[in-house]
Design goal:
single chain; nine-stranded antiparallel sheet; 2 domains; Jelly Rolls; alpha+beta; Arc Repressor Mutant, subunit A
Length: 279
């Protein structure tokens, strides 16, 4: 059975052993809240979300993939992946030397209509498609489009410093906390100025921006599971839904309901068949 048509567990496949530099696979709806434990593979991986929220965690950060975006995971990078809500996605596996200019780090990518159609078309190819001819040329065009895909700002970086890691883990555990930055600094044994300087040095953002980014990522996960804006706002410590919506609009350029509606509308009619995700 070819992987693109398989319905059983992806863990039975040897992605790195498949004798093509690029392999595209499609995925059907798999229900709510699945997870793949930390793993790695030589081939880089692109996960395109048609619906649902895909999350990826590596040692240096967390990434979120809303519908109509894609997650790029470089080869040999230890990572875990999970889905929130009803998910449907497509996967592309690429040998690291297949093309110059592919992303060198984990990132969330915007997917153009052309890139989406190329990926959907390639997912229907046999695993051992002809390396010369129309299918190979389509794969080459797909890679060219992938190199041009813009990066989305849906990344929550994690620090290496032990004290800052303590801070970020505490906020992940209690995202509704309203503790001011000065008190957090004292809690982890730093001055507020030193904490701010080290956050900028390690994460490239302030304490307030990191917490806002955390709230955006957590809210997208929870909204994808069907929670209301009001419920998410209260869970994240906002006194009203309007305060949460204002924060989300500043971060993402539009309110959460419109953001998710536009993402969902872009993926209608793209139901796939077959696999979930290959490790």
């Amino acid at each position: 059975m070819q992987p693109g048509n398989a319905a059983h567990s992806p863990r039975t496949w040897d992605i790195d052993g498949m004798a093509r530099q690029v392999i595209a696979l499609n995925a059907s709806s798999v229900g709510k809240d699945w997870e793949h434990a930390p793993h790695r593979h030589r081939k880089a991986q692109l996960i395109y979300s048609v619906r649902g929220i895909i999350n990826c965690e590596v040692d240096t950060g967390l990434w979120i993939v809303p519908p109509q975006c894609a997650l790029w995971i470089p080869g040999d990078l230890l990572h875990s992946v999970r889905g929130s809500g009803e998910t449907e996605c497509y996967c592309l596996f690429v040998e690291p030397d297949a093309l110059q200019g592919l992303p060198a780090v984990c990132c969330t990518l915007a997917v153009s209509p052309l890139l989406r159609e190329l990926l959907l078309k390639a997912s229907g190819f046999e695993t051992l498609y002809a390396e010369q001819g129309p299918q190979a040329r389509l794969i080459a065009t797909l890679l060219d489009e992938l190199c041009q895909a813009p990066v989305e700002d849906l990344h929550l970086p994690m620090p290496a410093d032990r004290r800052l890691r303590q801070l970020t883990q505490a906020l992940l555990a209690d995202p509704a906390s309203k503790t001011p930055s000065g008190e957090w600094a004292r809690h982890i044994g730093m001055s507020e100025r030193s904490m701010s300087r080290l956050l900028l040095q390690e994460l490239g953002m302030s304490f307030g921006r990191w917490r806002r980014q955390l709230h955006v990522i957590l809210s997208l996960q929870r909204l994808a599971r069907g929670q209301s804006v009001q419920a998410v706002a209260l869970e994240l410590g906002y006194e009203s839904a309007s305060g949460f919506v204002t924060m989300f609009r500043k971060a993402m350029g539009k309110p959460p309901a419109r953001y998710l509606l536009e993402r969902a509308a872009g993926g209608e009619g793209e139901a796939g068949r077959g696999i979930l995700l290959a490790p």
